[in-house]
Amino acid sequence: MDKSQQRQIQLAAAIGTIANIVLTIGKAVVGHVAGSRALLADAVHSGADVVGSIAVMIGLKVARKPPDADHPYGHGRAELVSSAVVALVLLVAGIEVFIASIKGLFAPPHAPEAMAAYVAAASIVVKEILYQYNVRLGRRFNSHSLVASAKDHRTDVYASIAALIGIVLSIAGRVFHIHWLKFMDSIAGAGVALVVVFIGYQIVADVVQSLMDRVEVRETNLEKYYAALHKIKGVERVDDLRIRDHGQFIVVDVEIGVDAQISVEQGHEVAERVKTELRVVFPRIVEVLVHVNPYYPETP
Predict the structure, then answer these.
(1) DSSP for 156-216?
(2) Strands 249-259 and 285-295
(3) pLDDT at 213
(4) Which CATH superfamily is domain 219-295 in?
């Protein structure tokens, strides 16, 4: 990953952090003044996002470090750690908000002021813009932490929609004197919490799979690697191929078949050619481990 890409990723993380800080303060203040449990729950969620955004920035900074003696495959998995922090914060915050919202159902109902609805609506717009920005950049540069952050922004969109619905219905209950509708603000807070917990679980599941050295097994995703290998001079056959995820980077384990009649030195040259050419074709590759097998062409 070049410096320009790194700067773009860092900028996206910084923008997300600033936006989350502004939204957290705005939702908390308006939620308190307007008396909206749903908006306060959304503020807690945005506060968790601030922690998550900071974790993403730290993870990206560590991931940029070049390989060293202790980390020959680089530091790409630091992004996975930051993604795990985002998920943990989401899970803890979601559970806390859910409990608080359920308790609100047993308290006297109170419809919030209209300003709470305006803030929730503004949050939906801002967070959807941030989601689109982060998810496209994350997929383009294969950044796990940015994709995780994008999912978090999308969670905020759903959360703010739920909060907005609850706030509007609660206000409607006050205006039209429908007592049970006044509870919708607290119910929306509980709904926000459940969405937060679910997204946190999804991020944890993805991070765990990557940390456990999950390999790519879908043939459609491996075809491009097979095609590149078959074009390399001296490779007669590809016996086995494994692609391992290391955050922004990938590690390739491959077994190739070479002419059984060539010398050991010539076989080594083919292996080195495989390493060099794969890295050129696929910039994400940080390491290629090549095992050479003898290839005996079938005789008629």
Answers:
(1) HHHHHHHHHHHHHHHHHHHHTT-GGGGGHHHHHHHHHHHHHHHHHHHHHHHHHHHHTT-B-
(2) parallel
(3) 58
(4) Cation efflux protein, cytoplasmic domain (3.30.70.1350)
The residues, any chain, with a CB within 8 Å of residue 85's CB and separated by 6 or more, are: 51, 52, 55, 59
Q: Report domain 3-211's class.
A: mainly alpha
Q: Which two tokens stand for residue 207?
A: 């991070």
The DSSP secondary-structure symbol of 179 reads G
Q: What is the largest CA-CA distance in the chain?
A: 91
Alpha carbon of 224 to those of 95, 230, 256, 282: distances in Å?
A: 43, 10, 16, 10
Question: Three-state DSSP class for 292?
Answer: strand
Task: Write out pLDDT tens, residues 236-247.
Answer: 999 999 888 766
Pairwise CA distance, residues 210 & 208, whole Å: 5
Residue-wise pLDDT tens digits, 62-82: 766 766 777 666 666 666 777
| DSSP string of 228-276, one letter each residue | HHHTSTT--EEEEEEEEEETTEEEEEEEEEEETTS-HHHHHHHHHHHHH
Q: What is the residue extent of each domain of the chain? A: 3-211, 219-295
The token pair that represents 139 in the structure block: 């997929």
